[in-house]
């Protein structure tokens, strides 16, 4: 052995054997000083007080002292057993003092057989020896084989199986004298492993039935490896635990070991997810509190701007729980906060609307009162325009207070009143018009005074509803009735003109169809008496005269226009015939003229029945 102390990157001391390439956190027995051996043998430990002064504490008797204990001093003075005979017990006790946490750092993968087992599994509780004299005088066997057999029987008697580690064997049997019959720990380790690999078939079957026991021990081994994480795979784990007795010598199949390992990492993953979920839940709760009470949001800012402001906020950065959150978590909370802000704004707007609604209604009622006052003064009637009263109301507070408010405007309220007046006036106008028609009174040929006087002579209940003092109401009614009569007359004239225009078009069609019978040629003139005589005999002419007999000259103008249109169409038709003729077909016009001469003898006008049928 060539042990030497080495400092790691963090300034911690560990021990490295350059020959065996082993490393350990605990000081090897070979390097222990006489004082350290004495303290370890007699259950004393050296500690440093807060002031930097050393003191000694006995874990067995719970005694403490500032000075070197007397029994330790006696041990150092040679009053104890020979130092060399104590090397093996000291090594065994030294390794039992190593704690589980010291296995955290492993500069070199290869460790001593004994210390590796102890470092991973030995408890921190020191062992109390029941009878030191028995251990210092172990049984002596005839040969090494006999001592080995006794040690194997000890293991078998205590049902040691692959679930045991060598450190557990040390802890369980260190007080047994048979354990010390083999003075070398390496030999005991070798026998232990040989025992595990040479168990009988019955022992293997018995062990195989105790799967729960194996699973508990296997999980304990896995838990000792900090390198095994929730994401570790089985091939990686096998490389880590390849030297473990429970892995090498167990009768449990590799498939079952893998299943136990998978359950172990699944549990680690689930525990991690639960921890993360709890942290995220706490972080989300704190983020909600941050948004509601700390962060000042501007609804006009874009999301990137808001996120940049949040991430730079010292109050946000000071909360370490927020590191587990993603930007999407912040965005979700931001959207919730916006919804809350919008809801608050909506409530404020609704409250403001409810407050202003009453004020708007009062303003409308006040303006309506103003309109009623103007109506009572005779300034608003069915024919009043808004411009007629604007100069009267433009400086009134009741008008000014309503301008710009929600609801009906001053103009709309004004037209509402005018419409009401117009509806009432229409009813009264219809009553007066009915009376005039019944009495056959010619309103168009009478003055307003004659109209009022006529109504006064009537003994009609309907007339009593009117004030016959020549007021504005009767004057408006008379004007509206005259307007209706004038409009009716204009519509009748327009209808007659449309009707006569249609008859004139029918006359043109009739002449084009029957001009041969009437002996009307292209050269016929409307001024010719013979032509006019033929036209006046037509039934359509008589129909047109019946429509409007008061203006016969108008009928003549329509007839003239129809006849001229007829001759124009006839000339265009003749030009078409001439333009389509050729030298080989020159007799076409001759045949046309002969047909005309054949019909020229017919001079009688068609009868009324013929006109109706052709028409």
Automatic annotation (TrEMBL):
Any single Gene Ontology cellular-component annotation: U2-type prespliceosome
Start and end residues of each FF domain: 359-420
Stretches assigned to the WW domain: 1-30, 38-71
GO molecular function, one term: RNA binding
Highest taxon of the lineage: Eukaryota
Example GO BP: mRNA cis splicing, via spliceosome
PANTHER family per record: PRE-MRNA-PROCESSING PROTEIN PRP40 (PTHR11864), PRP40 PRE-MRNA PROCESSING FACTOR 40 HOMOLOG A (YEAST) (PTHR11864:SF0)
Name recorded for this polypeptide: Pre-mRNA-processing protein PRP40
Organism field: Babjeviella inositovora NRRL Y-12698
């Amino acid at each position: 052995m060539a042990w030497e102390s080495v400092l790691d990157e963090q300034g911690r001391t560990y021990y490295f054997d350059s020959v065996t390439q082993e490393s350990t956190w605990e000081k090897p027995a070979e390097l222990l000083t006489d004082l350290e051996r004495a303290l370890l043998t007699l259950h004393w430990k050296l500690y440093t007080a807060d002031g930097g002064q050393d003191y000694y504490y006995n874990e067995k008797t719970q005694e403490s002292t500032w000075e070197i204990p007397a029994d330790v001093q006696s041990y150092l003075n040679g009053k104890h057993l020979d130092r060399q005979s104590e090397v093996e017990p000291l090594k065994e006790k030294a390794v039992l003092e190593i704690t589980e946490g010291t296995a955290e750092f492993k500069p070199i993968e290869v460790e001593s057989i004994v210390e590796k087992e102890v470092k991973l599994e030995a408890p921190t509780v020191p062992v109390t020896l029941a009878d030191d004299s028995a251990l210092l005088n172990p049984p002596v066997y005839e040969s090494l084989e006999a001592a080995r057999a006794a040690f194997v029987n000890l293991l078998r008697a205590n049902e040691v199986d692959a679930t045991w580690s060598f450190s557990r064997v040390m802890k369980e049997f260190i007080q047994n004298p048979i354990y010390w019959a083999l003075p070398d720990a390496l030999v005991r380790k070798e026998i232990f492993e040989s025992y595990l690999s040479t168990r009988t078939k019955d022992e293997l079957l018995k062990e195989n039935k105790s799967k729960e026991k194996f699973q508990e021990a296997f999980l304990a081994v896995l838990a000792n490896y900090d390198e095994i994480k929730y994401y570790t795979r089985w091939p990686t784990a096998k490389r880590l635990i390849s030297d473990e007795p429970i892995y090498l010598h167990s009768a449990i199949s590799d498939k079952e070991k893998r299943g136990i390992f998978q359950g172990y990492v699944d549990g680690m993953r689930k525990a991690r997810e639960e921890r993360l979920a709890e942290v995220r839940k706490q972080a989300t709760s704190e983020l909600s509190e941050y948004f509601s009470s700390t962060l000042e949001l501007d609804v006009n800012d874009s999301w990137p701007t808001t996120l940049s402001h949040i991430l730079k906020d010292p109050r946000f950065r000071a909360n370490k729980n927020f590191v587990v959150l993603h930007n999407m978590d912040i965005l979700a909370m931001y959207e919730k906060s916006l919804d809350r802000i919008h809801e608050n704004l909506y409530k404020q707007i609704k409250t403001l609307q409810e407050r202003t609604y009453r004020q708007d209604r009062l303003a409308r009622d006040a303006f309506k009162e103003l309109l009623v006052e103007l109506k009572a003064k005779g300034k608003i009637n069915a024919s009043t325009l808004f411009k007629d009263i604007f100069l009267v109301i433009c400086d009134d507070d009741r008008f000014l207070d309503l301008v710009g408010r929600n609801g009906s405007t001053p103009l709309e309220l004004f037209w509402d009143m005018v419409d009401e007046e117009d509806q009432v006036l229409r009813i009264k106008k219809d009553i007066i018009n009915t009376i005039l028609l019944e009495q056959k009174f010619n309103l168009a040929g009478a003055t307003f005074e004659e109209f009022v006087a006529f109504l006064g002579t009537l003994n009609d209940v309907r007339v009593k509803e009117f004030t016959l003092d020549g007021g504005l109401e009767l004057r408006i009614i008379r004007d509206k009735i005259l307007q209706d009569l004038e409009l009716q007359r204009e519509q009748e004239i327009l209808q007659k003109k449309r009707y006569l225009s249609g008859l004139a078009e029918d006359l043109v069609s009739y002449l084009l169809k029957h001009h041969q019978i009437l002996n009307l040629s292209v050269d016929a003139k409307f001024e010719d008496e013979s032509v006019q005589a033929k036209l006046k005999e037509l039934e359509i002419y008589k129909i047109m005269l019946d429509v409007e007999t008061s203006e016969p000259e108008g009928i003549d103008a329509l007839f003239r226009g129809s006849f001229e249109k007829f001759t124009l169409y006839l000339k265009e038709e003749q030009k078409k015939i001439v333009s389509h003729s050729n030298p080989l077909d020159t007799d076409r016009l001759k045949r046309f003229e002969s047909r005309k001469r054949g019909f020229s003898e017919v001079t009688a006008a068609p009868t009324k029945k013929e006109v109706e049928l052709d028409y």
